[in-house]
Amino acid sequence: DPLNPMGYPDIKPQVVAPGININSASNRSNVAYQEMTGTSMSAPHVAGLVALIWSAAHCLARDYVATETLIMQTANPVTAGLPAETCSGEAPGGVPNQSTGWGEIDALRAVNAAIAMPPCPWVRLPIVFRQHPGR
Questions:
Q1: Angle between helix 64-73 and helix 107-115 axes, rounded to 10 deg
Q2: How far apart are CA 70 and CA 18, in angstroms?
Q3: Average pLDDT over residues 4-21
Q4: In degrees to the nearest 10, what's the CA dihedral of 25, 74, 97, 36?
Q5: Between 74 and which of 5, 61, 62, 110 could a Cys-Cys bridge form, CB atoms 3.0 to 4.6 Å apart?
């Protein structure tokens, strides 16, 4: 499944990101901020990480499978405070799990891993100039 490169169809979420008590712009005025919580606060963290990864390794740009895999592989495992019993058969306190997936995203590790990837191959195309008299 190209949308699930690691073959873990039951693991949701794949990763977690900061999303509790995040300072965000408020619609109360043009200069107001407020603390917000939820996926609307964590999703921008992941989107920003994808932008950083694609800037660091342009070969990954629009390669969603490789980008997702890189983010999962560089996440910091989070197992503290998880329930002893799981709903999908994975070991208690193990990673990946149904509560935090592969763990919390780690932007520095992910970008460093992207930078360490082999460079993109360059495609050289021949350029041919022809003269067309009378045109």
A1: 120
A2: 18
A3: 77
A4: -10
A5: 110
Task: Outline where the chain has alpha helix (H).
Answer: 39-56, 64-73, 107-115
Omega of the bond leading into 2 within 30 degrees of 0 (cis): no
Alpha-carbon distance of 44 to 53, in angstroms, equals: 14
Amino acid (one-letter) located at 135: R
Domain boundaries, the chain: 22-115
Amino acid (one-letter) located at 67: T
Identity of the highest mean pLDDT range in 32-36, 44-48, 91-95: 44-48
Mean pLDDT of the 95-116 span: 92
Q: Tell me the whole-structure pTM to 2 decimals.
A: 0.74
Size (the chain), residues: 135
Closest CA to 41 of 17, 23, 19, 24: 19
* Residue of 4, 44, 49, 2 lying closest to 24 (CA atoms): 44
C-alpha to C-alpha distance for 119 and 124, rounded to whole angstroms: 15
